[in-house]
Write a structure and sequence with these properties.
This protein is of the alpha+beta class and 206 residues long. Helix content is 33%, strand content 23%.
Length: 206
């Protein structure tokens, strides 16, 4: 009888030692499988994006922006670096920035392009395009003040755009929101160096 009890205790201890083993730890910095399941082909144009960059891409999906292999992950990385920055007229840094300053910083960081410093001048250097043809990285213009172009943002996709709001700082908004739908004017595609503007020419003051 004692032999049976001892054998049973030994079996119980063996079973406990197996079940008490800690599960294999994931490497630091890796995303859960559910997060990375939506992000594929992270090597683009010979450049490999690290896990931190992928996190920004994943968060972009969380706000309703669909990404694919043609998406510019650097754009979303840069955008999330600025989200929450307060608005300051004439500002161009993390302590405060205005809409044209923010748009210019994004374009310099992501596309290595210099834009004009105010929204009306920016509009003079784009090819106007209808809302239905907006693509990632295009500019969106609004006539909020006195019927003139007075606000600009960067289009991300799925009707979402990022901009520096006068009341909420750098945020992502939807073009279908009543406020932005009311004041929306035109979309614009920035020309590259040496590229002629195509499409209609519109006076921003008309």
């Amino acid at each position: 009888m004692k032999r049976i009890l001892i054998a049973g205790l030994l079996c119980g201890c063996t079973a406990f030692s197996v079940s008490a083993q800690s599960p294999a730890k994931k490497k630091p910095g890796t995303l859960p499988e559910k997060a990375t399941a939506h992000i594929e082909n992270v090597v683009k144009d010979g450049e490999t994006f690290d896990p931190d960059t992928l996190r920004y891409a994943f968060h972009a999906q969380k706000v309703g922006i669909r990404l694919d292999t043609s998406s510019n992950l650097k754009l979303y990385y840069s955008v999330y670096e600025w989200l929450g920055t307060p608005y300051r007229f004439g500002g161009s840094g993390k302590r405060g920035i205005d809409c044209s300053g923010f748009t210019g910083v994004i374009y310099q960081d992501v596309y290595k392009m210099d834009l004009a410093r105010d929204s009306r001048s920016m509009f003079k250097n784009v090819a106007p395009i209808p809302k239905s043809e907006l693509k990632e990285g295009d500019l969106v213009f609004f006539r909020i003040s006195k019927g003139r172009i007075s606000h600009v943002g960067v289009y991300l996709g799925d009707n979402k755009f990022v901009h520096a709001s006068t009341t909420r700082g750098v945020i992502i908004s939807n073009l279908n929101e009543d406020y932005y739908r009311r004041y929306y004017y035109k979309g614009g595609r920035v020309k590259k160096a040496g590229e002629e503007l195509s499409g209609e020419t519109i006076d921003p003051e008309e």
